[in-house]
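Throughout this chapter, every protein is written as a compact record of paired, labelled lines. An example of such a record is reproduced below:
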Amino acid sequence: MNPGGVQACDFASKLVPPALERDWHFTIAEDALNARLEDASGRGEWALEHAMQAKAAAEEKGGKRKATQVPRCEAVTGDLAKRLLGVLQDDESKYALKPQDDSVLSEACVKLALLLQSHVPEATLANEASNWKHWVAFCAHMRTSPWRDDKAANAGGKGHEREVQLLALGLLYIYARMKPARRTPGRAPKPESALAVLRGVRRMHARLGIKMAGLELATRLAASLAAEYCLEHGPEELMPHRTEPLTNDMVEWLAATPHGTQLKPGLKVDEGSLRETSLRACYAVMARTGFRSSEVAMRTANTHTLKRLSRWHLRWRIGGVLVHDPTPEQLRNLKAGDFAILIPPRRQTSSVWSGDLTQSG
C-alpha cells in the first residue's frame, strides 16, 4: 500500500516544484555541543545559562527571534556543573586542584557537565529536568541537600536508613504535588509517575558516579498507593495510555488533503508550496520507515546532530547509477527501477563507546 497515494515518479516530481529550480539552500547547523562549549568558554562558572539565552536569541531570516527562557534541561546541566565545581572547591587535601586562574576549574566543570549530558536523549533530559525540579523542592522542604553523596550511607553504613526513608518520604511529597498531565486533565496522576521521578534523580546521580540508596522502601510504598488508587479510580486507570499509531488510511488522508483546506485560522493547504510538499513527503517516508519525529524535525533551531536526517542521508539510484545530488530534471524524469535510498540516522541507543554506560561504579 502506498501511503502517499501516488506513484513514485509523480511523488518525486512533486518534491521539486519547477519554481524552485536549482536554487536549493540546505544548511546543517553546527554541532550543538561544540557551539555550547565554545560559547561557555571564558565566561565564568555559570556561563551556561547565559550561553543558552544567547542561542535562543539567534538571528533568523527576516529578523531576530525573541529571547526565550533557558530550557529546564540546561538549568539542570548548570546544577551539575555547580555540583562538580563545589566538590573541587571544598577539597582541602594535599591533592586538591588549585590552578592559578580560578576560572579554569569553573569552565572545565561547565564543559564536563555538558559532555556528561550530551549522550542522553533529549526526551530523557526533559523528563529529568522535571524530576529534578520536584526533588529540589522536596529537599528544600526538608532543609537538606539534593545531592545524596554520603558514600557510606548509600552503601549500607551509618545513615543508610535515613537515605532510604528520605526517598520514601520524597515519593509521598512528590506524589502529593503532582498535577494531571495536560493531555489527560481529568485523570489523577499515578503513583508510578512519582516513583519514576525518583528513578530519574538516581540516574542523574549515577551520571556523576554517585550510587544512591535503593528504592526498595519507596517501591513498596508506591505499591500501597497503587492499591488505593485502584479502589478509588479502578484498575483500568493504571493501564498505560499511549497514543495509537496512525493507520494507513489516516496517512493517505494527510498526504491527499485537498488544496485550500482550512487547517486552522490563517493556515490553508497550498499544494504548490515547499512546506506542503515537504510535509507530504515526510508523512509518506515516516509511514514506510517508522522514523521518530525527533529524527526528521528539530524542536528548536541550532540543534541538528547526527541523530537527525539531513540531505547527506539521501541517495538516489537513477538509471542504475548512484546519484548523491540529482538535478530537478533527473527527479522529474524518474523511471521504473529508479529509487531513493535513505540512510537511517544514528539511533538513540547507538553508542561509539564500548563500555557499559548503565553502570555507575
Observations:
- The longest helix spans residues 122-141.
- The first strand starts at residue 59 and ends at 60.
- Strands lie at 59-60, 63-64, 262-264, 267-268, 314-318, 321-323, 339-342.
